[in-house]
Amino acid sequence: MKDLCRSCYHSWVAILPLPVVALLAVIAAPASLASASSAARTLTWAAKAAPSGSKARRRDPFVVPSRVKVEPKAEAKKEPKTLPVPAVESRLSEYRSLVRQAAATGGVAPDKLSPYLVEELTVTGIFRTSAGYGAFVMAEPTKLTFFVRPGMRTYDGAIKEVTPTGVRFVKNIRYDDGSVRQQLEFRALRSGK
Asked: How would DSSP label each residue in 156-176?
């Protein structure tokens, strides 16, 4: 240990804890420096060379830094939120303006259910004709009753099928990221009061 050169000593000081460095400094010191003052100088020099603090980062001598793979942090996927639905009054005024515009241009008017949400519709009756099943549907906000058939559109979906027990809707759920998810919803025939 007495033959330990200064460059080797510096490289070991960087990775060893301070008490071991101080011990090496005393052991590696030449015999002529055995006095107390020279030993104190050697310990001071060892303390300056060693990293300070408990959080000092020490390099692992067995790891090659160029071969260490650092994986990027996975970004947390933000769950999309559903878009808010406008109030009934604004949906009705939009519907009326579309009807006026269709009448003025000679275009096709929107379905009568188009200002209403699927949740706002109640199935009050079922009828059958030669063309198939139809239903009586009451809109809760306005208390109006409509005759409906498969294919008619609502504000957030469409009528997929009318069965003897109720009406099956396809509901479109819109999200803030631009995506639209479809969900089937069955509204059973309401029993009489």
From this structure: TEEEEEEETTEEEEEEEEEBT
Give the 3-state secondary structure of residue 183.
Answer: strand
Q: How far apart are the first and last CA of the chain?
A: 101
What's the pLDDT tens digit per position in 87-117?
999 999 999 999 999 999 999 999 999 999 9
Assigned token pair, 176: 């803030």
Q: What is the dihedral of CA 86, 89, 91, 94, to 10 degrees?
A: -130
Residue of 186, 140, 180, 132 lying closest to 159 (CA atoms):
186
Backbone angles phi, psi at 7, to 5 degrees: -65, -40
Specify whether the CB–CB gap between 156 and 149 falls below 8 A: no
CA 103/CA 145 separation, integer angstroms:
23
> What is the token pair recorded at 169?
């809707």
Are the C-beta atoms of residues 166 and 188 closer than 8 Å to each other? Answer: yes
Specify whether the CB–CB gap between 176 and 159 falls below 8 A.
no
Q: Are 165 and 189 in contact (CB under 8 A)?
A: yes
- pTM, two decimal places: 0.58
Task: Annotate 103-122 with b (16+ C-beta within 10 A) or e (fewer).
Answer: eeeeeeeebbbbbbbbebbb
